[in-house]
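ingest -> fold -> write
write: protein_1
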Amino acid sequence: MSERVTGALHRLYRDYYAGRLALADYRHQRGLLLDSLLGNADDTDELQTMPRQQLPELKLEQSSSEPVREPKSKSKGFRWPYVVAACIPLLAVVVFLATKQLDEPMKTEIEPEPVVENAAVVVEEPVERAEPRQEQEPEIPRVPDVGQVLVEEFIARDDWRDVRLNDFQDTWGRLPARDRIVAKGSMWFAPLVDGLEYQINEAIEFSSNPAEDARLTSLYLFASKLGLPELTPSGWRPPKPKPVVRDTPDASVDAPVVAKTVEPPVAETESAPPVKARPDTNEFSCRASQLETRRRTCHDVLQDGSNGPPMLVVASGSLDDERVVRAPFAISLREVSRQEFEAYCRAAAVSCPDDPWPGEDMPVVNVSWDEAAAYSAWLSEQTGYRYRLPSETEWEYAARAGSDAEYPYGDELTPAMARYSGLADYDKPLSTDDTTTRRNKFGLWHVVGNVREWVAPDGSVGSDERTARGGSFADSEDGLRLTVREILAASDRDRQTGFRVLREL
């Protein structure tokens, strides 16, 4: 019986310690169990066998009155002295332990509230200290953007002309060292290195003297600026900048040094306009000798040192027995851009046409035939070579590139080949630097579609009429056939018509 009472006392204490029993009820129930040790053992048996959930309710009912003690059983009277003698030591131990630990649960009841309050205060403090860190976070995104975007845009354009290389180098040199490091670690830098290596190998293959090739020098200098010595020859050093020698308009000025470097003037032909001869010091100037190499692109230099429009050298040939191109020529690689035409407007002090679309690389439109011819004459004055609008025969010869099909790309046309209203109605052309469409076999961009181009008519037209060829972004595929001619007034201006120029060699 003593073991049962002891177990009941332990369970009672655990219920109290766990908070399932109030202190007053715990003390009352404990008193009942202790009294049962001295009373009827049957009460203890009942408490032992009773479910734990019902025990507090039973004792709470009994707490309002004195403990009820049943008469002692006569059949068990002979056992009671032994029970008392056996339980007295155990009772003393239980009372001692229960009394000793009584204060500890009480502390756990009283102390939790201030502990919770302190914890709440501690939680708020880190939130206040974390606010300054959030203010510094906007500085993180701008670390890699500048250099990475520069490299990405260069790769997207895929334009390796010297003017693009120079622009890239100038911007790259102004970047902080950290931005350049981040750009080199981006996914776009590897294609840049691969493209540069390809350009160098191609220039070496088509150069007659790589040691003195100006194109190779430009590419090597580009590799040096990017920190890629592995792409330059062993022992190569950047060339020292040469002093700029400007032409003197007044021949009476004493300039013996300049006179030694000036080449004889270019002889004028009967068809050539009166242009000022300039020394041919540009390594990338257009020459007929380029036909013997695979480097057909070129550009002349204007008087302010900037580059003229990029050109492509085309060999002589014929369309048929009657339409013959007797001499090689250079023709615009792309349509004349708004940026290129604005240089003429500023120099000639004339108003530029309205720009329906933003962007310096967009093809210039809203120009009349006379304005296109005036731009060509200005290029002639700037470069010392004769520029003009191509004739219809010259334009078609360059556009066909040896093909006798309906289009430069065959007898069928798709929107992936040219910009026209095929599957969708486009409201503007592509930029002149766009490379999403297809070049013809000569390498010319946008010879059909995008914007139609003014040409010098070699057919029968009225005195006030001129011809445009190639179709535009607003035309269907029928308007892009190489045989289609648009007859317009020389003074007409619209947003569908631009031009490209021809340079005589």
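write: protein_2
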Amino acid sequence: MKDIVVYGLGGLGRKIAKELKDLTKRADNYSQWYNELVIKADLAEQSAVRGCMVIKPYGYAIWEKMQHQLDTMFKDTGVQNAYFPLLIPKSFLSKEADHVEGFAKECAVVTHYRLKNAEDGSGVVVDPAAKLEEELIIRPTSETIIWNTYKNWIHSYRDLPILCNQWANVFRWEMRTRLFLRTAEFLWQEGHTAHATKEEAEAKAIEMLNVYADFAEKYMAVPVVKGVKTANERFAGALDTYTIEAMMQDGKALQSGTSHFLGQNFAKAFDVKFINKENKLDYVWATSWGVSTRLMGALIMTHSDDNGLVLPPKLAPIQVVIVPIYRSQEQLDTINAKVAPIVENLKKQGISVKYDNADNKRPGFKFADYELKGVPVRLVLGARDIENGTIEVMRRDTLEKETVSIEGIEGYVEKLLDDIQNNIYTKALNHRLEMTTKVDTWEDFKTQIEKGGFILAHWDGTTETEEKIKEETKATIRCIPLDGEEEEGKCIYTGKPSKRRVIFARNY
């Protein structure tokens, strides 16, 4: 890692800029690198509440861009946004057996509705007289409260389909947390749809999976494998769970989005019936699907390097930063005048640009800071550049610098942003391909899993075998790939017949 020299700041300036980028190297400790980067890049920090995080403005700006794009894509499929209560009556969770079993250990429970001053003046205490008749659960997910609501909305096939999504926070009591990847409270979206037929619901579940995959690849520049979860790994209360799985730089998998075909389970639990086209009473068919702030973790771990964040241009809050180099107010005035139309033209092209001519930080510090924060393109303009009709351009993904003509810089930058977006996707895809291996024996499997990556191997289809492999190697079946071909083989663990390979990996 190169040192950043901050001209004019002396030893202190050099120290600040160097510390800014003084990250643990990925090769030395990938986990520590990630934790440091999240904090140093001003994305998030630990909160006073154990297991919860504060998402800082720069981190939230990235999430907002994700949210905006996903929201547009959802609405293009006919989905509308709504909002449902944060608190769920405890009895609701009892109605769907698999669902309550899946979430019971993670639920936070509200038992009282009032505090009072302690008699000894020590502060406030829970008022024992204010105990709720029925405890309320802070939502770990909203299927139960939503299906209780849908019962009032649905009477006939003419009321269907219902295509609802909500952007919300949820709470799942986590003991081992990591910023963005696993926190007790997190932000997400959860779609909940109701349909007249099984076929329509299954099609919707797959449609939303494809939306997630398109978003991951086209906007996050993260290649994913689409597949279906095993019975052991599927969502509590679902008949099928579809997933997109991404590979991080350390070879571990990250589940990056799921879409669930719920069948009629929740409709039966909440007695949601409708008169179908044959004038018969039937239960409604359902899906649910969601992605969360975990996507932030995927974004960071897929692309970033030892110098800091590397952001795909389509999701970067600042796509272009312009930094002036000057020695006098007169020079700055000249540069300001030159930069103004460039900024205006870039904005007209839909490019987010920041002109940082603040005089409280030196150029070297700014370079280090924007590099750390993953700004895709940096433009530097000094008095000599103006004389020569040139401007310095640096792309964050490769750290390559070049001096180009200032004339037509807007078109140059537009093409460069597209090139960066494509380049980081290709780099991530090549990494996944290099780290994906076919394995046919148990010994080879145990050797390969220590190297990381995705392992394509045969499995006998039983939960028992799946659990034993996980117990002995910490590897889980990430998914049964949707595009996987049928292939006769033998289970790596039991030797029993198998008709297709599944993806094994260690995961976050």
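write: annotation protein_2
The first strand starts at residue 44 and ends at 46.
DSSP finds 15 helices and 27 strands in the chain.
pipeline exit 0
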